[in-house]
């Protein structure tokens, strides 16, 4: 009897092997939701959080400042978000709870500072609890709104999110490659300058030593110490 032929894969539907599933599993692991940051803010204190963010990146965030336990007054703190040049991207006085959003214009270091306005008394003032949930890039996108506008199915929304995430990872690798090239060029330029400086220093030392020999020879001849 002839042996049955194994089923052929359907056109347009490639079979996924382990090598193909590995990048997808990696993306799923990296796509986990970011956790908010919580910290204590003492009275009349200032605490800042810094993060480097790429250009043309959407940044969103939510914050909440809780009143000190046992305090008769509510929470009192100022929030200011700036870049390395000091440009104010978001500012709020007497902030208690709110949201913010902005789009970066260039790769830079961004800083979110909370400054407490509680007076410092003679005794120990209880700290305020600050919670900050800051997202950027793929995490900042609202895929529920995208699904409603474009009428996407849940699987299509997940594929869109994975596509954006993979594009973000590729951009990060491209940026790291660019930084590596810049650092390599800087190292090569520094090595060339050090080499030229070393050659120049050796020429100066040889010239100085030659001048000293001729000078001392003329000096000793003038003193008739040598012929």
Folded structure, characterized:
With about 230 residues, the chain is an alpha+beta fold. Helix content is about 40%, strand content about 25%. The protein has a domain at about 40-140: Jelly Rolls, CATH 2.60.120.680. The chain is built from 3 helices and 8 strands; from the N terminus they run αββββββββαα. It has a 4-stranded antiparallel sheet, with no helix packed on it. Strands 2-7-4-5 form a 4-stranded antiparallel sheet, with no helix packed on it. α2 (about 145-150) crosses α3 (about 155-220). It is elongated and about 100 Å long. The relative contact order is 0.14.
- The oligomeric status of these chains comes to single chain
Overall CATH architecture of the domain at 38-138? Sandwich
Low-confidence segments, given as residue ranges, are 1-22, 27-31
* CATH topology (level 3) name of the domain at 38-138: Jelly Rolls
Reported for the largest beta sheet, the result is:
4 strands, antiparallel
If you average the pLDDT, what whole number results?
A: 79
Judging from the principal axes of the Cα atoms, what is the shape?
elongated
Helix and strand succession? HEEEEEEEEHH
Percentage of residues in DSSP E strands: 25-35%
What is the CATH domain class of the domain at 38-138?
Mainly Beta
CATH superfamily caption of the domain at 38-138: GOLD domain
Radius of gyration: 33 Å
Q: Give the strand order, joined by hyphens, for the main sheet.
A: 1-8-3-6
Q: Would you report the number of β strands?
A: 8
Enumerate how many helices there are, as a single number. 3
Membrane topology: Single-pass type I membrane protein
Signal peptide: 1-36
Protein name: Transmembrane emp24 domain-containing protein 10
Subcellular location: Endoplasmic reticulum membrane; Membrane
